[in-house]
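Most newcomers find our protein records easier to grasp once they have seen one. Read left to right, the backbone structure tokens trace the chain's path through space. Nothing more is needed to start thinking about how sequence determines fold. An example says more than a description, so a record of this kind follows:
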Amino acid sequence: MFPRQALDAVTADIRDHHITADSTGLFNATRHIGLLCHLTSRVTADAEYQLTPNIAGLPSAEILGTTVGHLGRAIAHYTQALAPLITLTTTAQDTLQQKLDSPGLRSRLRIHLDDAGRALAAARTALEVPQPPIDSKAPAPAPLRAPAARRRV
């Protein structure tokens, strides 16, 4: 899967699993953070490989680096959304003060989730930069090594 396809898959998963102010929402938020961290490390690795052999079809290392920056912002916003989400999901809304605090917590949660969405949109936009045509004279990428077989003892 190319970086744009991987980002689209993670974004679709995030869109399909909403974050709500309950235990399911908390589970979804931590799941989204895990997916974004995995995607970020994957795109970072692609950028590193792009710096050495020229792998056909990958965006440039500069584009991948920009994308990683946007993904990092999305992770930061999801992480910041955890504080109000945990408070909303683990604290009973019994007292008047807790009920008064609830709209502020929901507002902070919404702000961070919206900012995370904007960061993901910026990452997608960064990956949409047109790629230069592949040079037929460029050297082929180095073949991948087959994993070593384990011997039974």
Remarks:
- The chain has a mean pLDDT of 81.
- The first helix runs from residue 3 to 16.
- The radius of gyration is 20 Å.
- Residues 57 and 133 are 9 Å apart (CA to CA).
